[in-house]
Amino acid sequence: MAKAVVIGSGIGGIAAAIRLAVKGYAVTVLEANASFGGKMTQFTLPGGYRFDAGPSLFTLPQLVDDLFTLAGRAPQAYFRYQRLPIVTQYFWPDGTRLTAHASADAFAREVEAKLGIPADQLHRHLQKVARLYHATANTFLHKSLHKLDTYLSPDVLKTLPALPELGLTTTMHAANAKAFSDPRLIQLLDRYATYNGSDPYQAPGTLNLIPHLEFNIGAFYPEGGIYAIAESLVKLAEELGVEFRYNETVQEIMVLGTRATGVRTGQGTYSAEVVVSNMDVVPTYRKLLPNQPAPERTLQQPRSSSALIYYWGISRTFPELDLHNIFFSQNYQQEFEHIFQKGSVAEDPTVYVNITSKLTPQDAPTGHENWFVMVNVPHNAGQNWDELIRQTRQSVLRKVSHSLGTDIASLITVEKIWDPRGIEADTSSFAGALYGSSSNNRMAAFLRHPNFTSKLKGLYFVGGSVHPGGGIPLCLLSAKIAADLVPPVAAPAQT
C-alpha cells in the first residue's frame, strides 16, 4: 500500500488521516504528546471535575458526520450531539442581561425586548448574513484559494455578485456600527472576531458572516463534551487501519530533490508518498524543514490572539448561567488595543465562562460546577505572564462576582491555569497563538499558508494555522481540502 504520515493528532490531523485511509493509504499518525486531540484534550482535577482543555463551541456538526459517512459508517453509532436552545448568556457592566437563543427569530425578539432594537431589523441582518455565507462558503472555505480550479468553478458565479456586500473595504466594527445604534449589540456582534483570534476594529467586515453559524444553523453540544469529537474520530480512524504512535516527536521531514519522502523521529524513519503536517506552519518550516526555503512573508504575518484560561471547581450552582456565558468589558476597543498593540491585558477584560456540567452533570460533583474561565490575551512575546495571570485573575473575579452578586473567590475549590507559554509548549502553536496568523487585514485569508506547497511534492498542511483558518469547522475543512489534493492510490497493475 502507498503510505502516508500525519504529523500531529489535532482535529485536522485526525480528519486528514481518516480521509487518506479511505483513499487507500496506509496511514501513520505521529504525536509528540501522550494522547490525541491537540488542543482538544480533556483532564480532571481533584474532587471530580472534568474539563475540555481547549475548544468549547461546536458548530457545523455535519462536517464531523461527513467523515463517518465517507467511511461507510452511521455517524450516530459513534457520535451524538444536541442542538442548543440557548447559545450564550450575555452580561454587560450596566446590568443588562440577554439570552441569545439559537433561533434567529427568538434572538431578534430578545434583542428587541432587552436592547430596544426592532426585531425585524436584526432578522433582516441575519438573513443577509445567511445569503452572503451561502454565496461564498463553497469558494472561500471549501476549496483552496491557491488553485486556479477554484476560480474556474461554477461556485464563483454565485460568489462574484456577493463581493460588494462582504465588507472587504471596511472593518467588522465599522460595519456593525453602521447597521445598528446600540453599543451593546455592536459589542455582541464585534466579539465574533475572537473566533479566529482577531481584532474587530482591524479585521475586515467579512468576518461578520460568522454569526450565521450560530443563529441560522445552530450551536451544538456533543454527548460527553468536546473531547468526544476527537475520541469518536480516533476510534473510526483506528477501525480504518490508521496507526497512532504517541510520545514520538517528529524531528525532520525528509526531502529528496523536490519531494517529501517521509519523516524522521527519535525512534526511526517513516518513508511515505504523502506527508501531512498538522503542526503549526511556523515550526513546521523552522524545525522540520530547516534546510528548505521558507515562505517568509507568510510566516511573518501578525499572530492571532492567545488565551489565558482558569479552570475552576466551583462549590455551588448558578441557575442564571448556561453552557456559554460572556461578561463584557466596559471599553471593548481599549481591550483589543491592549491585546494587539500593547501586547498586554486590559484591567477590565471580557470574560468567557464555559460550564459543561450544565449538560453533562457528571463533569462536576453534585451541587458544584466546572468553570472554564477564559480571557483573550496576546500571543507570547516574552511578557511577564506570572504577573499578568495574577492581575487578570483579580480582574476576572471582581467582574464576575459583581455581575452575579456573589464572591466567586470563596467558591473555588481547585484551580488549574493554561497560559500562552503552556499552549505553545503543549501544542506547538507558535508563540501560543491559537489560530496561527490573525485576520486583521482584508488580504489575510489569501496570506494564510495554502494546504500544499508548490516547492515540495507530497507535502500537505492542515490545522488552524493554514487555510481556511482556526476553530473546529475550519480545521475539518482544511483536512478535506488537503485530502482532495492528494492523488488517489494507484490501482495495482493487471497481470
Mean pLDDT: 96
Report strand order across the widest sheet.
8-7-16-17-18-15-19
In CATH, the topology of the largest domain is named: Polyamine Oxidase, Chain A, domain 2
* Poorly predicted runs: none
Describe the protein.
There is one protein chain. This protein folds into 2 domains: 3-40 and 227-298 and 428-485, FAD/NAD(P)-binding domain; 82-124 and 168-223 and 303-427, Polyamine Oxidase, Chain A, domain 2. It has 17 helices and 20 strands. The chain has helices at 11-22, 62-70, 104-115, 119-140, 148-151, 155-159, 172-179, 183-190, 211-217, 227-239, 281-288, 296-299, 332-342, 385-404, 420-427, 444-447, 472-485; strands spanning 3-7, 26-30, 42-45, 49-52, 58-59, 81-83, 86-91, 97-101, 219-222, 243-245, 250-256, 259-265, 268-271, 274-277, 306-314, 324-327, 351-354, 369-377, 412-418, 459-461. The strands form 5 sheets. A 7-stranded mixed β-sheet has the order 8-7-16-17-18-15-19. Strands 10-2-1-14-20 form a 5-stranded parallel β-sheet, covered by helices on one side. The protein has a 3-stranded antiparallel β-sheet with strand order 5-9-6. This is Phytoene desaturase. Keywords: Carotenoid biosynthesis, Oxidoreductase. Pathway: Carotenoid biosynthesis. InterPro entries: Amino_oxidase (IPR002937), Carotenoid/retinoid_OxRdtase (IPR014105), FAD/NAD-bd_sf (IPR036188), hydcarot_desat_CrtD (IPR054840).
Which structural traits does this protein have?
495 residues; alpha/beta; FAD/NAD(P)-binding domain; Polyamine Oxidase, Chain A, domain 2; seven-stranded mixed beta sheet; five-stranded parallel beta sheet; 34% helix; 20% strand; globular; FAD/NAD-bd_sf; hydcarot_desat_CrtD; oxidoreductase; Phytoene desaturase; Carotenoid/retinoid_OxRdtase
